[in-house]
Specification:
The chain is of the alpha/beta class. The chain has 8 helices and 5 strands; from the N terminus they run βαβααβααβααβα. It has a single domain (about 5-215), classed as P-loop containing nucleotide triphosphate hydrolases (Rossmann fold), CATH 3.40.50.300. Strands 2-3-1-4-5 form a 5-stranded parallel β-sheet, sandwiched between helices. Helix 1 (about 20-30) crosses helix 8, helix 3 (about 60-85) packs antiparallel against helix 4 (about 95-105) and helix 4 packs antiparallel against helix 5. Mean pLDDT is about 90; it is low at about 205-215. Helices cover about 55% and strands about 10% of the residues.
Length: about 220
């Protein structure tokens, strides 16, 4: 039976460079990696993405959270779980922590409440490693690009999201690694790749130790 793959997620505010770094990471890992994004990665997810990113739409905070949860459930079932079962590394541009930060904290729904509505669709799946691309909101907003609905809401939302991400990282330091994203692209990529390789090596070591324990356990 093949070893379960590594599940890596990248988080950060808009324009933190997260999507670019996710792509670079997947390319560096090669054929053993699958790159996906949230919302998206499936036909269902891409339709949700178009809806929630559209500046002309205004779903309520609860509707927004449920839309993200639905797209996530489809991505888990259709792409992430099958890839992990084949032993592949999954690189995901955003995952549950985005909903916890944006809808749970910044929208005021509550982190525990948003986590609860996602539990059904995620089936206890959790990342092995989450990389927070940390950048000052003012520096991020200065980067070029078209504004989506979330960015158009202004700097105050991004500041709240940054604070929420830091709180999540402090709560689970064994899973989170904070990477300063204000540096040049190559330097950020090198740090991310090193962290992922370190996590993969630790996972292999744990797997070998577990196999050894099974082998030496008397019948």
């Amino acid at each position: 039976m093949s070893r379960r793959g590594l599940f890596v997620t990248l988080e950060g505010i808009d324009r933190s460079g997260k999507s670019t770094q996710a792509q670079l990471l997947a390319e560096a890992l090669g054929c053993d990696a699958v790159a996906v994004r949230e919302p998206g990665g499936t036909a269902v997810g891409e339709q949700v993405r178009s809806l929630v990113k559209d500046p002309s739409t205004a779903p309520s905070p609860r509707a927004e959270a449920l839309l993200f949860a639905a797209a996530r459930a489809q991505l888990v079932a259709e792409v992430i779980e099958p890839a992990l079962a084949r032993g592949l590394t999954v690189v995901c541009d955003r995952f549950l922590d985005s909903s916890l930060a944006y809808q749970g904290a910044a929208r005021g729904l509550g982190v525990d409440e948003v986590r609860a509505i996602n539990r059904f669709g995620m089936r206890d799946l959790a990342p092995d490693l989450t990389l927070l691309l940390d950048i000052d909101p003012a520096a991020a907003s200065a980067r070029e690009g078209e504004l989506d609905r979330f960015e158009a809401e202004g700097a105050s939302l991004q500041v709240q999201v940054v604070d929420a991400y830091h709180a999540l990282a402090r709560a689970e330091p064994e899973r989170w690694r904070v990477v300063y994203a204000g540096r040049d692209q190559a330097t950020v990529h090198a740090e991310i790749l090193a962290l992922v390789r370190l996590q993969a090596a630790a996972g292999r070591h744990e797997g070998q130790r577990a196999q050894h324990d099974r082998d030496v356990t008397p019948e």
